[in-house]
Every structure is written in structure tokens, then in C-alpha cells.
Amino acid sequence: MQLSSLTPSPILQTFRYSDLDEFRQAYRNMDVHFTPTCRTAAPEQAILSLPGCDIYLLKTFPRILDAGLREDHTYVGLTMQDPAPLRFNGIMKDRPGLSIGHGGAGYKVIEEGDSFIATIIFHPEVRRRGWPSKERMFCACAVTEAGERSLRCLIAQIFRLAASTSTDLIATGAAEGLKESLLAAIDTAIADQDALEKFRISTAKRYFDIVQKIEATINERFDSPIYSDALATEIGTSVRTMHNAMQHIRGMSLHRYLRMKRLWSVRKQLLSGGGQARIGACALANGFWHLGEFSQFYLSQFGETPSQTVARAR
Predict the structure, then answer these.
(1) Are residues 68 and 48 in the same domain?
(2) Angle at 144 between CA 132 and CA 2, to 5 degrees
(3) CATH of the domain at 309
(4) Is the dihedral of CA 200, 201, 204, 206 positive or negative?
(5) Residue 14 scores a pLDDT above 90
(6) If DSSP codes are grouped into helix, strand and coil, which group holds residue 207?
(7) Same domain, 65 and 187
(8) Which tens digit of pLDDT belongs to each residue from 190-205?
């Protein structure tokens, strides 16, 4: 489905971006933070607003993403095509599945390539349907191949219908029926999880909690050196387990993850400085003491030098 081919309407919005620095993920009821792992991209979004739920279609790019769902909402997400090069809360998307979360829960995603994702956010929260649920994190729920395919087709049909007959949908109240069709399709798609699937989810939850502790400590001491031994001792785990958790949830070592986060922090400061930001000062403030090495890392990450970024900000 080409999102750019959808006709906007009172209930359907479409967005296209030509620059990563312009992109904003438009979830209304989620707090989303992401770090791109690519230099360029042209993401697209489409948002359909129905009574009691919003549906989002998003064509994305390689990135690391954190999100938290606001209270009294339920999230259901799925990929719209295969293969889907992503890891959701430490679980690779290598089989049909849905991601499900309720108010106050969060998730961590690594998108290793371009992805096409659908998200349905229900409000008020959906309960008493037997969907998997955890308090602090989203569930990766195995579904049947037929169930995933059916839900994908239904979402595509709803967007095409909204693009062509949005006025009729609003006037007749048929939008309520679309929501009920979505709920029924999700009910049908959810499959019983076997013992191996439950073990994978249990391991992912333990690693998710460890990475949450790691990142809370990092955020408190962003401008100070972080040492593996001391960090592992502080959060109450071994260096090996901490390393496995970072690889599982973030797909990279702690050292590489820290460097990437700090590079993006420098870039945001340079772009927001209106061309007046001092490169050396920004680099030092983000923990880069070797400025020559910093410049090499920056060029490798963004495809331009820090000076070129400052020039673009003028």
C-alpha cells in the first residue's frame, strides 16, 4: 500500500518527510523517543481516527525506539509485510505475531531496516477479552499466519474505504462497526502460546527490566564516564548478563549504544544552536574528550562533519 496515494479527509491524515531531522512520530497517546541508526530516510505516516480508536500506518527506517503508552489506552501493533527486520522487547519478528500493551506499559524496539507497521490504539482501555497482559511491558504474542494475514487485509481495506468514503463513514456511524471488526479480528488472530514461546517472553521481560535500570543510570550520569563493572554492581547483575541484555534488547554493546546516544545529543545541540554552537564545547559536554576521534565517529554516523551540521543550522 502506498500511503501517499491515500486521499486525506476529516478522519484521515497523511504525512511524508524528506529528512530525518524533520520526522516526528505522530502517536497521540504515547510518549515516543527514538535514535536513528541510518543517515537518511523518507518516512511516511497515515492516521485514521475512528470512534474509540486511532489506527496508524508507518513506513519507518533503521532506528532504536522507546515508547510508553498513556493510561486508559490499549495498543495493538503488527507488521504489514514480511520480512520485518525488527526486534520487539528482545524478541525477533521471525513469525506471525502481535504486540499488545495496556496503559502505563512500555516497549523497546530495534528496527534494523525499513519496516511497514500498523498500530491500533484503543481508548478507553480494552479489557476482559482474554488478550495477553503484563504490567510494565508490552507482550509479543504469537498468532496464526492466517490470523495475521486477515488483520493486515482488514486494516488495508479500512484505510482504502476511509480515503474514498470518509463522509459516509462519519454520517452513517459505520465507523463504530469498523472498530468492532478490528476487535473481532484481533480476538481471532491470537493463538495459544506454547512452552517455548512463554520462555522467550519470560527471558525478554528479565532483560527488559535490566536495560531499564541501565538506561535510568545512564540518564542520571550522561555527562560522566560509565564503567561496566561499577554499573553492573549498582544494578545488581553480572557484566555478562548486562551485556546479554543490551545485545538482546538494543542489538549492540553498551559502549556502542552510549556513543550513538551521545552523538545524537551533540547533533541536536548543533542544529538547535542557530549556527552559533561551539563544536568542541558540545562534544566535551557529551563525554567526547578526544575531538579528532569524535569527528570521525560523527562523520561515520551522519555522513557529514560537525562543521557542516553547524553551517546547515545557520
Answers:
(1) yes
(2) 100
(3) 1.10.10.60
(4) negative
(5) yes
(6) helix
(7) yes
(8) 865 555 566 677 788 8
Using the Cα atoms of residue 262, residue 263, residue 266 and residue 271 in order, give the sign of their dihedral: negative
Beta bridge partners of 76: 100, 120
Residue type, 282: C
Q: Residue 141 is placed in which grid cell?
A: 504474542
| 60 and 208 co-located in one domain | no
What is the H or E stretch that residue 92 is in?
strand 91-92
Whole-prediction pTM: 0.73
C-alpha cell of residue 185: 479480528
Range of 233's domain?
194-252
Q: Which residues contact 156 (CB under 8 A, 6 or more apart)?
A: 1, 80
Place of cell 535510568: 216
Q: Which residues pair with 122 in a beta bridge?
A: 53, 74
- Rounded distance between C-alpha atoms, residue 1 and residue 160, angstroms: 9
CA distance 298 to 303: 8
By C-alpha distance, which of 265, 276, 267 is closest to 219? 265
Angle between helices 174-189 and 145-172 (to 10 degrees): 170
The length of the chain, given as a count of residues: 314
Q: Where do we find the cell 486494516?
A: 155
Confidence (pLDDT) at 172: 60
At residue 142's C-alpha, the angle toward residues 139 and 143, to 5°, is: 125
Helix then strand then coil, in percent of the chain rounded to 5, is: 45, 25, 30
